[in-house]
């Protein structure tokens, strides 16, 4: 099944899961002249003016990026060309500035998204999420021993001989759902909420982390009831999207409410209302000026769910 063209999905790299287990093969890839290195510093990526900085091996050596990086992780193959992430996160701000000179700028990934191509976005998101996991997993969660990166950065192993536990990259599953209510004989409406952690004029879908011991459908029902006091009886999968802030997988659903009664939990959300397709079509975009309601960012799966619902309503007419 083809997934929709959501930002951060549609990965073009072959992850070469078997080949990357060989140290010899990885070294060969690192030493090829056309191999691409993408440096990251904590949550920032490097740009040369308004273009994502992609370094060849020679450029990365000359610019001292390889010698200054604390780690180098293999992402995959673009045809025959290998792509690696260089982790500069252990450098201080001052050392980073010295390294970059005036030619390169470190920019926040999220605010720099308009400068990144559709092909680059999933690669960089993947590199950032992998890098984040490595920074979190320097020490073993079982015994506190130091861990070592293996398989080009796709496995870590505890260095304590008595423990030797293996650790693998993690993704946090998050359900995100557009809740619809269809009144008998009336027009469908959908539930959108104002959230504590996004600008107050933005209304978006509900979302929440999946609990241990819970199916995705159960997580949807629980989150909708906890946040808005709404009961849903039908949950349908729509699409998923890697969300590298820092390492979630957003799993999108449509859910059908059994009534339009709302009972907000203000610890979870600021407010929630039912909106018709006509009302939503008058909303502005994220970041627009004015006091009108705004829709979520265009790169988000929340926006995809809302746009898909609007299309469905238009088809009904
Ligand atoms: Zn251990």
From TrEMBL:
InterPro entries: NAD-cap_RNA_hydrolase_NudC (IPR050241), NADH_PPase-like_N (IPR015375), NudC-like_C (IPR049734), NUDIX_hydrolase-like_dom_sf (IPR015797), NUDIX_hydrolase_CS (IPR020084), NUDIX_hydrolase_dom (IPR000086). It catalyses: a 5'-end NAD(+)-phospho-ribonucleoside in mRNA + H2O = a 5'-end phospho-adenosine-phospho-ribonucleoside in mRNA + beta-nicotinamide D-ribonucleotide + 2 H(+). GO terms for molecular function: metal ion binding; NADH pyrophosphatase activity. It is an enzyme of class 3 (hydrolase). One of its GO terms (cellular component) is cytosol. Keywords: Hydrolase, Magnesium, Metal-binding, NAD. GO terms for biological process: NAD+ catabolic process; NADP+ catabolic process. Its EC number is 3.6.1.22. Residues 169-300 form the Nudix hydrolase domain. Its cofactor is Zn(2+); Mg(2+). Belongs to the Nudix hydrolase family. NudC subfamily. This is NAD(+) diphosphatase. The gene is nudC.
């Amino acid at each position: 099944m083809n997934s929709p063209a959501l930002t951060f999905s549609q990965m073009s790299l072959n992850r070469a899961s078997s080949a990357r287990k060989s140290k010899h093969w990885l070294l060969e890839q690192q030493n090829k002249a056309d191999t691409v290195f993408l440096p990251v510093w904590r949550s920032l990526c490097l740009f040369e003016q308004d273009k994502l900085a992609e370094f060849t091996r020679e450029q990365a050596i000359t610019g001292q990026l390889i010698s200054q990086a604390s780690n180098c992780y293999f992402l995959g193959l673009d045809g025959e060309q290998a792509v690696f992430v260089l982790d500069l996160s252990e450098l201080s701000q001052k050392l980073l500035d010295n390294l970059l000179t005036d030619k390169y700028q470190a920019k926040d990934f999220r605010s720099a998204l308009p400068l990144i191509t559709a092909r680059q976005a999933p690669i960089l998101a993947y590199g950032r999420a992998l890098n984040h996991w490595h920074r979190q997993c320097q020490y073993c969660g079982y015994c506190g021993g130091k861990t070592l990166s293996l398989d080009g950065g796709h496995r870590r192993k505890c260095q304590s001989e008595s423990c030797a536990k293996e650790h693998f990259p993690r993704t946090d599953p998050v359900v995100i759902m557009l809740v619809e209510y269809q009144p008998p004989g009336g027009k469908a409406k959908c539930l959108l909420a104002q959230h504590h952690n996004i600008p107050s004029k933005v209304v978006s879908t509900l979302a929440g982390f999946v609990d241990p011991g819970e199916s995705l459908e159960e997580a949807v029902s629980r989150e909708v009831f906890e946040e808005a006091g709404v009961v849903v009886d039908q949950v349908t999968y729509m699409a998923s999207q890697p969300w590298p802030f820092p390492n979630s997988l957003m799993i999108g659903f449509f859910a059908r409410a059994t009534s339009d009664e709302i009972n907000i939990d203000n610890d979870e959300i600021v407010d929630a209302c039912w909106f018709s397709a006509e009302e939503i079509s008058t909303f502005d975009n994220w970041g627009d000026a004015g006091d009108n309601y705004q829709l979520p960012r265009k790169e988000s799966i929340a926006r995809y769910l809302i746009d898909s619902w609007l299309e469905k309503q238009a088809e009904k007419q």
